[in-house]
Amino acid sequence: MRKITLTLASSLEEFKNERMHFADKIASWNDFYIDHMDTRVSLLKSESVDHSLSADGKQVELNELFKSCDMACFIIGKTVGGYTKEEFGVALQNFTENGTPKIYTYFKTLDAPDESVGQFRAELERIGHYYQLFSHISEVENDIKHSIDRYIIETNKTKRENEIEHITIADSTLVVVHSFIKGAEFEKVFPSAKVKYVTQKWGKSTLDYCNAGRAQFCIGNHNDVLKYLNENKNSKLKILGTIGHSMGGRNFSIIVRSDSSLIDKTLDEIKDNLAEHVILVGTNTDRFRGLLTVLGVDADWITEKEIKLIDNPDPELSIFDLNPNAIMVAGQNVRLQALNSNKYAELLPFTELDRETRRELLNNSENVLVSNSDFLTENKLDEYEIFQTLTNNFNALSRDFNAVDAFVDDLLDECELVIDDYDLREKLVRRALYETYRLGTPVV
């Protein structure tokens, strides 16, 4: 069991009853701390040492309490004696040099305190030490209780993070995934851990990898993760929060040749003529869900109408040389290539869809950060705090345009972009960052 020491310094006579009540409070708090936080708070009362015996070393012994304790509480009433000042000085020096103890100082509100009280408050203000005023000891007790709670949580967090030796992150060469993984700076969140990034083919295999405990964090499509959890009741995956939308949301793209008979057709006309074409799309991807959303149909409709599908998650434009009637649900690499050529055109672009369809496309493309629940539980990690810290790290990039430029350069080197033209590659990366995370500036 962990032990936290709290040294209480105050006038022996003036706060005699308050000190006794404070000790009772600590004892009652310990019932909770022991049962729920595996922690005991030990109260050390410096006033119990007779200051008149300082000549034989008792004050030296007393000062040691303020060097070794975790928290020091000073309660000031009518006067401030020389020993109190000395004890405060010892605590402050040790805090400056070693980071402990945490010092909490309280002044009782009085009509006519001794001059020494005003002088001590002025000294604390000069050095920038925060203090509080109180009318009743219960105010001090409540504040100390909250301070102990924070201290336990913060130090336990630091202790746990420092005990984690290895972290594996399931990464990807996709811009949307790799950019968040890179910008979240896991090394800062787990400073003592050796962080390893393992590139995975994004999709179910990534979820399997994290579920098996081979990775502690990954990113997945929200719908895919929910489906995975539904199909695997004993899954170890834990959704931490939403991080953004894949480019298949606002940039959902259906590509055809520029001479396709489907161009300038209405939605109903396109649906009536689909059987004459072949559609290339990954049938287990958010792009396929997007296609169904845009068409306003379900998978059964595709089957009933005998629409020809080729399960290809990453089709290339060269397919049109083999089959001019092909319809391609494209990724962003291919989309950018198509839009920079007069050989191809888009059907049913996002901006021309109705509001409900656009909203559903965004929902289909929503991505979440996922962790392994065993990892979180075993290390007693606060999932909300971990998620907030990682997202805050990533969002900090937006405050520095130079940092964004350097970030883009890194992504150009580290992501898989099947485009030879450098300007197009950079355009794709910057568009992905802005459209997904509102990082950087809009790209036309």
Summarize this structure briefly:
This protein has 444 residues and is of the alpha/beta class. It has helices spanning 16-37, 58-68, 82-98, 115-127, 137-163, 175-183, 186-189, 204-211, 222-231, 267-273, 286-295, 299-304, 319-322, 332-339, 355-364, 373-378, 383-395, 401-414, 422-437; strands at 2-10, 39-45, 71-76, 102-108, 132-134, 166-171, 194-199, 217-221, 237-245, 254-257, 278-281, 308-311, 326-329, 344-347, 366-372.
Relevant terms:
444 residues, alpha/beta, Rossmann fold, D-Maltodextrin-Binding Protein, domain 2, 3 domains, 48% helix
Tell me what you see in this structure.
- This protein has a five-stranded parallel β-sheet, sandwiched between helices. Strands 12-11-13-10-14 form a five-stranded mixed β-sheet. The chain has a three-stranded antiparallel β-sheet with strand order 8-15-9, sandwiched between helices.
- It has three domains: 2-162, Rossmann fold, CATH 3.40.50.10140; 164-242 and 368-410, D-Maltodextrin-Binding Protein, domain 2 (3-Layer(aba) Sandwich), CATH 3.40.190.10; 254-363.
- Helix 4 links the parallel strand 4 and strand 5 (132-134).
- The chain is built from 19 helices and 15 strands.
- With 444 residues, the chain is of the alpha/beta class.
- 48% of the residues lie in helices and 19% in strands.
- The protein has helices spanning 16-37, 58-68, 82-98, 115-127, 137-163, 175-183, 186-189, 204-211, 222-231, 267-273, 286-295, 299-304, 319-322, 332-339, 355-364, 373-378, 383-395, 401-414, 422-437; strands at residues 2-10, 39-45, 71-76, 102-108, 132-134, 166-171, 194-199, 217-221, 237-245, 254-257, 278-281, 308-311, 326-329, 344-347, 366-372.
